């Protein structure tokens, strides 16, 4: 599953709403500069992947 964040610049990551990544859960050895977006493994850890890879995603929604 894709996580709503992207790499900007060399090592900075932003959420898709352009706020700074205020937490991370990278897998051991990640990020390894293999891409500029994130996927989440089944165990909840993250991996950086190429944006061209097609994966499912989830969205945040405000509840009134």
Break the fold down into its secondary structure elements and pairings.
Elements: E1 2-8, E2 12-15, E3 37-40, E4 46-49
Antiparallel strand pairs: 1-2, 1-3, 3-4
Task: Characterize the structure shown.
- This protein is an all-beta fold and 64 residues long.
- It has a domain at 2-40.
- It is 0% helix and 30% strand.
- It has a 4-stranded antiparallel sheet, with no helix packed on it.
- It is globular, with a radius of gyration of 12 Å.
- The mean pLDDT is 83.
Q: What series of H and E elements makes up the topology?
A: EEEE
Strand order of the largest sheet: 2-1-3-4
How many β-strand runs? 4
Task: Output the number of helix runs.
Answer: 0
Distance between the termini: 26 Å
**Largest sheet entry:** 4 strands, antiparallel
Mean pLDDT: 83
Report the principal-axis shape. Answer: globular
- Portion of residues within helices: under 10%
Question: β content, as a range?
Answer: 25-35%
Concise synopsis of the structure shown:
The protein is mainly beta and 64 residues long. Helix content is 0%, strand content 30%.
Tags for this model:
single chain, about 60 residues, mainly beta, four-stranded antiparallel sheet, about 30% strand, globular
């Amino acid at each position: 599953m894709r996580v709503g964040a992207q790499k900007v610049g060399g090592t900075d990551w932003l959420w898709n709403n352009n706020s700074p990544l205020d937490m991370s859960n990278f897998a051991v050895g990640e990020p390894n500069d293999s891409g500029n977006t994130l996927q989440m493994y089944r165990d909840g850890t993250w991996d950086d992947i190429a944006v061209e890879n097609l994966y499912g995603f989830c969205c945040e929604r405000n509840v009134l």
